[in-house]
């Protein structure tokens, strides 16, 4: 077999997806830098709400898109989830709890271990979304069921931030849609007519956001609390959630058509989104701890913002950082420690049995 044939036999990575993921995680960092000062500037608050309408929804949808082969080897897949998602969650959750003084003793640590610290909800929800694929893939109408649960979960007063229950079920339909989307369908976003739809979607998104107060829109987009805490009634909360589901899809449509289709210098960094996401939280906490964020952003904030933003994004995805952080971010050292552990093997077997239980 010639070298040309070997290359042809390998599945080429599509730069579109790596570009999208890198841009989205970079926008997550930008949003976290803006969030502490949002109340001091209405235009900034509105802009951040617009970014919120698509950056995590689009990232969740794309993450779901790459779960096509989850059921080929269930035991191996679940083991990969435990090592690649759950172990890093535990490590970074404990680290950030210690930074916040919320893990001073064993009792306090256990009380907060599954109450996701700032930004850590995504890992806990990501683990749940992947595991939920097993039962939902057996349903006749999985996406419709997921939307029903995502809407209904707001009626449950105790379903809030603990275990990331609210966000897990609210955003799961997006993950599930990504899972069922075919590559041919994603090609539509690369067409010129998609850009026209994107402009229209953006205009409608801004119009819808303008009907809500800045804080109400933020709460609806974050989806971390039950209706009892963010709306006048459960019925009002249900209506708002349905509207904001529509807003999220408009946001995704506003963003994806503008993603570059060709390879750029930053394209390869789209494979390092986990590093950017997990490590940038450290800087946000440090900046908050030393009271670096102004109550009212002035000219110097806007001058420094892009510099600090890009410095964090590119540093956390740099070769040196990836080299040293890989064992923790990807749970590699845990794989060695847990190799052959009877308790881990038993857990994987139990999860696999539950996944296939009718």
UniProtKB/TrEMBL annotation:
Chief subcellular location: membrane
Pfam families assigned: Acyl_transf_3
Membrane-spanning segments: 20-37, 43-66, 78-98, 118-136, 143-159, 165-182, 194-214, 242-260, 272-293, 299-325
Compartment annotation: Membrane
Acyltransferase domain segment(s): 15-315
Keyword field: Acyltransferase, Membrane, Transferase, Transmembrane, Transmembrane helix
GO molecular function: acyltransferase activity
Family assignment from sequence similarity: Belongs to the acyltransferase 3 family.
Protein name as catalogued: Acyltransferase family protein
Protein species of origin: Planococcus shenhongbingii
Lineage: Bacteria, Bacillati, Bacillota, Bacilli, Bacillales
């Amino acid at each position: 077999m010639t070298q040309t044939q070997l290359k042809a036999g390998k599945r080429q990575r599509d730069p579109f997806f790596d570009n999208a993921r890198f841009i989205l995680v970079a926008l997550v960092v930008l949003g976290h830098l803006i969030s502490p000062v949002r109340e001091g500037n209405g235009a900034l608050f509105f802009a951040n709400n617009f970014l919120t309408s698509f950056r995590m929804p689009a990232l969740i949808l794309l993450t779901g898109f790459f779960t096509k082969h989850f059921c080929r080897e269930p035991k191996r897949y679940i083991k990969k989830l435990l090592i690649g998602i759950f172990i890093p969650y535990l490590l970074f959750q404990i680290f950030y709890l210690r930074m916040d003084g919320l893990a001073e003793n064993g009792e306090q640590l256990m009380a907060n271990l599954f109450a996701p610290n700032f930004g850590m909800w995504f890992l806990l929800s990501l683990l749940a979304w992947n595991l939920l694929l097993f039962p939902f893939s057996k349903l006749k109408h999985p996406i419709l069921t997921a939307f029903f649960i995502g809407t209904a979960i707001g009626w449950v007063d105790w379903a809030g931030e603990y275990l990331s229950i609210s966000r897990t079920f609210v955003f799961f339909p997006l993950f599930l849609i990504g899972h069922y989307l075919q590559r041919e369908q994603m090609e539509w976003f690369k067409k010129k007519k998609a850009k026209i739809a994107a402009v229209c979607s953006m205009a409608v998104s801004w119009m819808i956001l303008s009907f809500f107060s800045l804080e109400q829109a933020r709460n609806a987009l974050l989806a971390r609390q039950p209706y009892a805490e963010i709306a006048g009634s459960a019925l009002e909360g249900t209506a708002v959630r349905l509207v904001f589901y529509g807003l999220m899809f408009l946001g995704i449509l506003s963003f994806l058509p503008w993603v570059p289709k060709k390879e750029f210098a930053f394209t390869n960094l789209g494979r390092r989104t986990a590093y950017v996401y997990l490590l940038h939280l450290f800087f946000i906490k440090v900046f908050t701890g030393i009271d670096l964020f102004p109550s009212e952003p002035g000219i110097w904030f806007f001058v420094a913002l892009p510099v600090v933003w890009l410095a964090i994004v590119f540093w956390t995805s740099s070769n040196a950082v990836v080299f040293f952080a890989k064992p923790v971010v990807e749970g590699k050292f845990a794989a060695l420690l847990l190799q052959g552990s009877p308790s881990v093997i038993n857990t994987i077997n139990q999860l696999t049995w539950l996944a296939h239980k009718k």
